[in-house]
Each structure stands twice: as C-alpha cells, then as structure tokens.
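Quick one, T. Sequence first:
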Amino acid sequence: MHYRRAIVPGGTFFFTLVTDRRRPILASTEAVDVLRNAFRSVRQSRPFEIDAIVVMPDHLHCIWTLPPDDADFSTRWRLIKSAFTKHCPDDCRRTPDAARLKKGEQAVWQHRYWEHQIRDEADFARHVDYIHYNPVKHGLARSPAAWPYSSFGRYVKDGVYAPDWGRDSMCFEGVGRE
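Structure tokens:
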C-alpha cells in the first residue's frame, strides 16, 4: 500500500506521535520541558500554530495550523523529534535494535505518526475535545483540568470550556489514533 500525506498549504491537522515501544519517556516534567523547547525552537524557524495539545507519558496528540503558503508539517516533526532526541534525559533512550543501529537511528520515537486533515469546525471541535479528554480516557487524571501537560487550561481561560468539563464519560468513535 502506498501512503500519501495530505499536502494542504495553511491546513489544520490533528497528529498523534508515539514513543518507541510505547515507553513512558514523556512522564517527567524534565522530558516535557525538553519537548516544549524542541517545539519552541522549530516554531522560530518554521512557524505554525498549536491549536491544542496533550502530552501523555507514551504519546502526544496535537492540532496544528500551518502558515497560508506552507504545507510542510513533515519537516517540522522531523526537527522536533530530532531536537527532543538530542536533548532528552538519558533515561529516555534505549539501545536501538539492529535495524535502527544499521541506519544510525535512536530508539526514542516510533518512525511514523498519524495525521488527519481537519475538515471543518465540527471536526476541529471533536478533535480538540478528544485531545483534552485523553488523560481521563487513559486513567491518568480524573478530569482534564487535573492533567498538567495540555492546552486545556488555555481553553478554560478563553471560555471554550467550563473548568469542570470532561468529568463525565465521553465517546469519541472515529476520532484519534493511538
């Protein structure tokens, strides 16, 4: 099967990135800070908006909007993953398997990531809800407000969510990819 990525200048996309073998390398504040710095660094040279994000111990979800004349999210992800890998705490790394060693690769991230082009406002809202509810779904927090590594607080501050949003069970059939 031939995989094709969406090429849409100025597009808005939902992404899922997973750590190698789903190891919980993003469980520490130190690792999340390194990831934040990787995002900041890449955004300085290749701007994009982070519309929503959640960082979980072994994966992350986010929605980006690219500049109107730019469709290159792949390079941005390569740079973010590389910067994180270069600066992450030593316990985030493990010995690469033979295939990775042969290519000179680290064993921090899964090779691929999932992307979905956001189609409309309803699709955007469903994916933002999915992102913010993810820590509750995985049993890591009782509510989205209790998870420190997400954009949920910004959405509450902007009046999009009530502070107690997401305390009830929610269904997100057809949204997300883990």
